[in-house]
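Training component of the fellowship. As part of building independent skills, the fellow (R.M.) carried out the full modelling exercise for a liganded target. The chosen ligand was FE2/S2 (inorganic) cluster. The inputs are recorded below so that the supervisory panel can assess the work.
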Amino acid sequence: MSGTTIFVIGLIAAALLAVAGVVAIAGRRGPAPQSPTAKFDRRAARKDKARRGAEDVTAAKLVEDAPDMATVADLSDPLLEREEVSFTEYSVTRRKFLNRSLGGLFGIFLVQFSVASLAFMWPRLGSGFGTPIVVGSFAELKAMIEQPDGTAIPFFVAKAQTWIVPFETSEQAGSSFNELPAVASDGSAVGLMALWQKCVHLGCRVPSCVSSQGFECPCHGSKYNLHGEYEQGPAPRNMDRFAVELNDAGELVVDTGVVIETNRSTKKTFKYPQGPFCV
Ligand code: FES
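Fellow's submitted model of the complex:
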């Protein structure tokens, strides 16, 4: 299981736990608190009771004195006919309301954050960087890259963030790329490689230098030969490259989802420099 998969699973689990926690907090009914108005309520209840008793006596006397003029119902006070409310219903205080509102908002934020993170990290299943990209006809690419004077002009593919360079297939055995899917070939002497443009030191974009026949990073001066092998500077390894192959139509396919990292080459496959440096 890859690190990304584990991270995604962990993120989902964390989001679910956070949502469950927030729901539990927001819906929690703690022990019945002492109402700050309990004392007042008891006194008010006693007063109400006394008042009701006095009114009952008055109403009874009125009915007795003038049975046609009034009834007990007519004399009852609507305020005294209120419904009984349980203490739990009564005790939803402003503080509780605010706490639950904040808990709910925090939960919504967590869910949105989790969904956005997943969307950002989810592997792109369509085309684009991170997937196999068809660059073009193998033969046409070679014709563009290889120059009549024997030099090469790397071909840049922005969509794949890669430099396409030629590679003599006879050089692969014993090199840093031995038995790796780093070279695509149609059986001819020269195949093609796809170097990631990102410098392995601190990630700057590395331009090609036609005069030296290599790649020279403008940030801290790391230099690589035409095959992306480390030559100079602070870079810790060769340039990274992508897995390549030919499809049935004879086109070069660069799989930008498969990055090949290699150590500094002990056996160099290209003579460098072949002219003035650019950096
Ligand atoms: S980023 Fe390229 S040498 Fe530092």
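The panel noted the following from the submitted structure. The pocket of FE2/S2 (inorganic) cluster is lined by residues 199, 201-202, 204, 217, 219-222, 233-235 (CB under 6 Å). Helices lie at 3-26, 38-65, 72-75, 87-90, 94-121, 138-145.
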